[in-house]
Amino acid sequence: MSGPRIGILALQGDVREHARALTDAGAVPVAVRRESELAEVDGLVLPGGESTTIGRLLRVFELLDPLRAKVAAGLPVFGSCAGMILLARDVVDGRPDQPLIGGLDMVVRRNAFGRQVDSFEADLDVVGVPGPPVHAVFIRAPWVEKAGGAVEVLARVAEAPVAVRQGSLLATAFHPELTGDFRVHRLFVDVVRSSGFGR
Amino acid sequence: MSEAQTASTAGTAADTAGQADSVRQAGTARVKRGMAEMLKGGVIMDVVNAEQARIAEDAGAVAVMALERVPADIRAQGGVARMSDPDMISEIIGAVSIPVMAKARIGHFVEAQVLQALGVDYVDESEVLTPADPHHHIDKWSFTVPFVCGATNLGEALRRIAEGAAMIRSKGEAGTGEVSNAVVHMRTIRAEIGRLSTLPTEELYAAAKELRAPVELVAEVARLGRLPVVLFTAGGIATPADAALMMQLGADGVFVGSGIFKSGDPARRARAIVEATTMFNDPDVLVKVSRGLGEAMVGINVSELPPSARYADRGW
């Protein structure tokens, strides 16, 4: 039996790394650049990249509204870094016109940990990921500034939430796709399987 | 090849004391290379002031390269080309939310120290500036800030990676608006990687000798079938079709130098090049974005440049 078809939004960012992680986690990764491609996936990954760039391209290639509709209809989505920003209700220190998909009841702060010279790696305990701590890579990463009651915090760095879940939406400020440890992707594949979306 | 320096990078905000979480490590190879992974599929644009930087960000650039003169002007005006004025770089950092890169001269590690202290997100040790050292590039492992370096072939790319470069770009021939050298460099690098992938292990040692690169890196490239870092293209990209051409030839992303702000309608051309880089395999999109862009930069034919005017020959 083949795994779920999980799309990766392929407008810009580290698509290849997510494809490898999803394959390892038992899913079939598919690049998504068009609405027709979006229609055929059981779940979606929003990769790391520049959130302003991806947001603008979502608008130009007319994916923003279809994506919002899919999220509202229950499509499971996992966003890392820029993907976390895109899933937020609002962003601090972003651009005023920066398009967001939304879905997670939270406000994120962009580049919250600082510039690239402040980017770092650290071990984190993540709720729902069994075994040893997750080695997390933060690159000009955001954090969650404010979260609604429905948002479950899965991990924190210095009090700030850096991994969250609300229903079948999952987001991390760090990049689990970069380390070769794909337990967070396995967690998402489980979310997709149990959601029954599109089946 | 060692992993980058670890922890204790003094002076970074990540080292806040009293964290409940484990020790944070800044400036590692993974953090440096990972930063470049996040730029993939994107366009990095040369800008000389805050206004241009805003135009680039509005157009969807993934980063800007702050420099005092675009390569076309360096060619036209001559003189020694150096790191930009810190005031100008700070102004650009303040103007945009996307990453800001800046250029240091080949071998000029103090310019790189200044750029790191300014908070730039990536340093380009660039042949477009006048080289400061004819023999030695910067030891890039000793920095927290990551570096991108130019290359014309695989051996050159691997020597830069051995020195700590976390991202490679084809050199092309900057400031010409002529894409042929970028094509040659990208094809050369890809062909040499392809050849390595076919070699039995015992032949990798002689291959490393020919490439003048560490055998560990040569073996890693043979195993991966690509560089261990992101490979962008640069040097002569002037149109959306140029950008899509380089993406189809295997580039992970595109640097555009003079091509945007030396053209008739920079904002529109910048948007078009961004969209062409994303949809590089879709001719219908390429037709649409290529229409009505106004004048492209006039450019210079590379074949008419005397050897002394070729930036790609700088470095080793």
Summarize the structure in words.
Chain A: Keywords: Glutamine amidotransferase, Hydrolase, Lyase, Pyridoxal phosphate, Transferase. Chain A: In the presence of PdxS, forms a dodecamer of heterodimers. Only shows activity in the heterodimer. Chain A: L-glutamine binds at residues 49-51, 110, 139-140. Chain A: It catalyses: aldehydo-D-ribose 5-phosphate + D-glyceraldehyde 3-phosphate + L-glutamine = pyridoxal 5'-phosphate + L-glutamate + phosphate + 3 H2O + H(+); L-glutamine + H2O = L-glutamate + NH4(+). Chain A: This is Pyridoxal 5'-phosphate synthase subunit PdxT. The complex is a heterodimer of chains A (199) and B (316). Chain A is α/β, with parallel strands linked by helices and 199 residues long. Chain A has a single domain, classed as Rossmann fold. Chain A has helices spanning 15-24, 35-38, 51-60, 64-72, 82-87, 183-195, and strands at 5-9, 28-32, 43-46, 77-80, 90-92, 106-109, 120-124, 134-138, 143-147, 152-157, 160-166, 169-172. In chain A, the strands form three sheets. A seven-stranded mixed sheet of chain A has the order 2-1-3-4-12-11-10. Chain A has a three-stranded mixed sheet with strand order 5-6-9, with no helix packed on it. Chain A has a two-stranded antiparallel sheet with strand order 7-8. In chain A, strand 10 and strand 11 form a beta hairpin. The longest helix of chain A is centred in the C-terminal third of the chain and has 13 residues, at 183-195. The radius of gyration of chain A is 15 Å and the shape is globular. The mean pLDDT of chain A is 95. Chain B is an alpha/beta fold. In chain B, strands 8-7-6-5-4-3-2-9 form an eight-stranded parallel sheet. In chain B, helix 2 runs parallel beside helix 4, helix 10 packs parallel to helix 12 (266-278) and helix 12 (266-278) runs antiparallel to helix 13. Chain B is globular, with a radius of gyration of 19 Å. The interface between A and B is large, with 49 and 47 residues.
